[in-house]
Design brief:
2 copies of one chain form a homodimer. The first copy, chain A, is mainly alpha-helical and 158 residues long. Chain A has 6 helices and 2 strands. A two-stranded antiparallel ribbon of chain A has the order 1-2. The first copy, chain A, binds a DNA duplex (30 and 30 nucleotides) through helix 1 and helix 3.
DNA sequence: ACCAATATGTAGCTCAAGCTACAATTGAAG
DNA sequence: CTTCAATTGTAGCTTGAGCTACATATTGGT
C-alpha cells in the first residue's frame, strides 16, 4: 500500500470533500450525538414540570424507556454540567442554564416537527423522526426552516 | 412524593405523548444513534473505493477525524456485523450486506441533502447537518422527501 | 538490498450509557 | 404509628467509542 499521504488518486465523478472538511462535519455530528442525550433530558424535564408540576426520576426513566438507574446516572451528569439540580428524594429541577437550553431545544423541536409535517410526513412518523433529527439541526438550518414555513403558510392562505 | 404510578396530574395545554409512545420514539432514536457510526463507515468506505480504488484505514480515520486505532476498532465491529472484510495490511472491502447498506445510506444521504438545499439551507450548512440528520430519517420520511422534491422541481420548471 | 517513512496492528486506558440486583427512604392507608 | 408499595439511591457489571503509546509490517527511493 502506498506510503504517500493519501493522494487523491483520481479526478472523480461526484468528488469527495477534502479530508479537513469531511472531518469537521463528522466531528460536529459526533458532538451533536453526545449532547443529544442531555438535550432530551432537559427537554423532557421541562415538559414534565410544565404539565405535571414536577419531574420525578421514574417518570423520566419510563418516558425515555430506560431503567431508572440509567436516568439517575444521566441526571448526575446534568448536575455536573450545571443544567439541573436535585437533592436526594426530592424532584429534579432545571438551573437557569438548563431552562435556557430547554427553551432553545423545545423551539427547535417544534420547528423541525412543523417542517416535517409541512413536507407531508405522516404525523406519527414525523414525531418519531423529529426526536432524532432535532439534535443535528444547526442555527443556519433552523433559519431556513422558519423562512420556509412562513412562505408555505402564506401560500396556503392565498 | 406520590407512590401512584405516574398519574398524569393535569389536563394540560400541549399534552405530552403517552409514556409508551414517547419511550418508543426515544428508543428508535437510540437505535439510530448506535447504527449511525456503522452507516458512516460503510458509506465512507464505499465512497473511497469508488473514487480512489481502495479504502485504507488511515484515510478512513483522517476523513472521520478520529485516531487510526479508533477506526480499526470500528472496522472490527463492521467485520463482526458482517458488513466488511479486511485481512491484515490489505485494504477494507464491503460484503454484499455492506454494499447493500451503503447503497441505501448514500441514496438517503443525497435525498436529505437535496431537501435541505431545496428548503434554502446554505450549501456548507446543509452538507454538515445532513451528516447528522440522515441517520434519523425513516422510510416514511424519505418517501415524503422525494415527493416534495418531485413537486418542487415541477414548480421550478414552470 | 536496505532504510526510513507510512500504514497497520495491539495494549491498555477513559468515559458515557446502558443494564441487573440490592439497599434505603418516603409517604399513604390502615 | 406502623406497614408496605413505590420511589430513589448505590454497586458493579458490559459495551461502544474515543484516546495515547508502542510494536510490527510494507513499500518506495536510494
Amino acid at each position: 500500500m502506498s506510503r504517500k499521504a493519501s493522494p487523491t488518486r483520481n479526478p472523480l465523478l461526484h468528488a469527495l470533500p477534502t479530508e479537513q472538511a469531511q472531518a469537521r462535519r463528522f466531528g460536529k455530528a459526533r458532538t451533536a450525538r453526545s449532547t443529544a442525550i442531555l438535550e432530551d433530558y432537559v427537554e423532557l424535564i421541562a415538559d414534565l414540570i410544565e404539565s405535571t408540576g414536577e419531574a420525578r426520576a421514574t417518570d423520566i426513566a419510563r418516558r425515555l424507556g430506560v431503567s431508572h438507574p440509567t436516568a439517575i446516572n444521566t441526571i448526575a451528569r446534568l448536575k455536573r454540567e450545571d443544567l439541573a439540580t436535585a437533592r436526594p428524594y426530592r424532584g429534579i429541577f432545571l438551573t437557569e442554564k438548563g431552562e435556557a437550553l430547554a427553551r432553545r431545544v423545545r423551539a427547535r423541536h417544534r420547528l423541525v416537527l412543523e417542517v416535517l409535517l409541512a413536507l407531508g410526513v405522516p404525523r406519527e412518523t414525523a414525531e418519531a423522526d423529529a426526536e432524532g433529527i432535532e439534535h443535528h439541526v444547526s442555527e443556519g438550518t433552523l433559519k431556513a426552516f422558519s423562512e420556509f414555513l412562513k412562505e408555505s403558510r402564506v401560500k396556503k392562505a392565498s
